[in-house]
Each structure stands twice: as structure tokens, then as C-alpha cells.
Amino acid sequence: MDAQHKKHNDISVSTESTESTTEFISAVRLLNNPDGSCTFEKGKLPTLKHMNTTTFWLSTKTEEWEKNTHPAPRRQYVITLKGNVRFKVSDGSTFLIQPGTILLAEDLKGEGHSWEMVKSKEWERMYVPITEDADDFFIADDK
Q1: 3-class SS at 5?
Q2: pLDDT tens digits for 70-120?
Q3: What single DSSP character describes residue 74?
Q4: What are the two backbone dihedrals, phi and then psi, of residue 74, each rounded to the nearest 5 degrees?
Q5: Coil, strand or helix: which one is 3?
Q6: Which residues contact 29 (CB under 8 A, 6 or more apart)?
Q7: How far is CA 137 from CA 21, 29, 66, 90, 99, in A?
Q8: How far apart are CA 44 and CA 62, in angstroms?
Q9: Which band of pLDDT confidence, cut at 50, 70 and 90, is reported for residue 7?
Q10: d(CA 25, CA 50)
């Protein structure tokens, strides 16, 4: 019997709706201020929520344009698999992204953001573009 048709005897099925989850994953959202400058807010994304995406890709390389300050090329989730990356926004504020925190890039205009590796030689990440006009499901932390 091949792997696709292998019988599993230890499968458990939950009857709870995945839409009513109370579990979350830490996230930071990059966004534009009304004047076009870049800022960020900390928050979370719900688990087991079907996100409106159609594709994804993985990367370990850094393109030349990524080494300078830039806006996000599209609305997307950036999921760090390996590495520590410090992001910097327009007012000089910074935040650290490590595996376990999702970056939501929505700073599509203006100067944008920059980043640098921190105590890491490689940044392994997955880019997951958000479908146009779709909800990003980001919930900002209470201030």
C-alpha cells in the first residue's frame, strides 16, 4: 500500500468549529501612516483560520533591493522559519522578528522599512501573498 492510501488507525477528529478558535500566533504588522511614512503595530493572528491566499514561496536569498529601505511589494504574510531579523521603520523604531512571530507586510507606499540580520547568517522565510481586498485577520494588541 503506498503512502497516499495508507490506513491510519490513530486519527482523532475534533467536532469543534475551526472558525471559533481562541488560539493565536504573535504577529507584527508594517503599515503606512497617512503621510506615507512606515510604522508598525504588534498583535496576533488567529490559528485555524482560513486565510485568503492563493500561493506561497520560500526564500533564503536576499535580493539587492531588499538591502535598502523599501516598501512591501504586496500585502503578504512573511513567516520566518530560521533567523532573527530586526526591522526599522520611518521614525527609527525597531522590532525583532524570530521564528514564531509572523510579519504582516502592508506598508505598500512611501519610504517603507529596512531590516538586518541579528546573530544569524541566514534568513529562511516563506512569503504568502494576501488575496487583493481580503481581510488580513490581524488583531492589534491593546495599547
Answers
A1: helix
A2: 999 999 999 999 999 999 999 999 999 999 999 999 999 999 999 999 998
A3: S
A4: -170, 165
A5: helix
A6: 40, 41, 43, 103, 104, 106, 136, 138, 140
A7: 13, 11, 26, 24, 19
A8: 26
A9: very low
A10: 14
Per the CB < 8 A criterion, the answer to whether 25 and 45 are in contact is yes
CA pair distance 93, 103, nearest whole angstrom:
16
Listed in sequence order, the residues at least 6 apart from 73 whose beta carbon sits closer than 8 Å to its beta carbon are none
CB 138 within 8 A of CB 98: no
Read off the C-alpha cell for 94: 525597531
Rg of the chain in Å (alpha carbons)? 18
Compute how many other C-beta atoms are within 10 angstroms of the C-beta atom of residue 60. 11
Report CA torsion sign: 124, 99, 139, 43: negative
Contact 58, 124 (CB under 8 A): yes
- pLDDT tens digit sequence for 75-89: 999 999 999 999 999
Contact 111, 37 (CB under 8 A): yes
Q: Kindly give, in sequence order, each residue whose CB lies less than 8 Å from that of residue 17, ignoring residues fewer than 6 positions away.
A: none
